[in-house]
Amino acid sequence: MNICIFGASSNDIDQAYMDAVFNLGKKLAERGHTLVFGAGARGLMGAAARGASAGNGEIVGVAPTFFNVDGIIYDKCTELIRTETMRERKQIMEDQSDAFIMVPGGIGTFEEFFEVLTLKQLGRHGKAIIVYNQDGFFNSLFQMMDECVEKGFMNHVTNEIYQVMTDIDEILSYLDGYTPEVGKVFKF
Asked: What distances in angstroms separate CA 157 from CA 70, 136, 145, 149, 164, one per listed residue?
């Protein structure tokens, strides 16, 4: 299975996040899965890639050509796909992946998560989406999502088409048994 990880590119975060996502990447690879990610060498993107490398896994990095700066791209990708734009980068990551895991991150991570969530809500794919809620990082996000439902801005079923998990082994077991499901929220 090709599993895409969306996560922080910043190195200015607590080491506990780095260690956990390294472990996620390593266990993902040890189970025979391929990591698909934004090709970054830093932050949680880099941690996931280093973990996948430590687990002898395949790594598909997708990066726009304007990221041609020393130290930005993870240099041990099995395959590195270059794009012209960030939009093209996301499309390739989505197309190459069978499942998505959002780990802690910032605005880029949120944007990637909300795009795949919106597409799933609209029935454009049935791939698994998991939020790795390490140390309650995303609790405020879930509060906002609940408020959107309470105030009628979002269908409550949208909160049921992704999973929130805090245990890496639970995440990988869920993915191993996942059956794609399309059309749970909107049916065209």
From this structure: 44, 22, 11, 9, 14
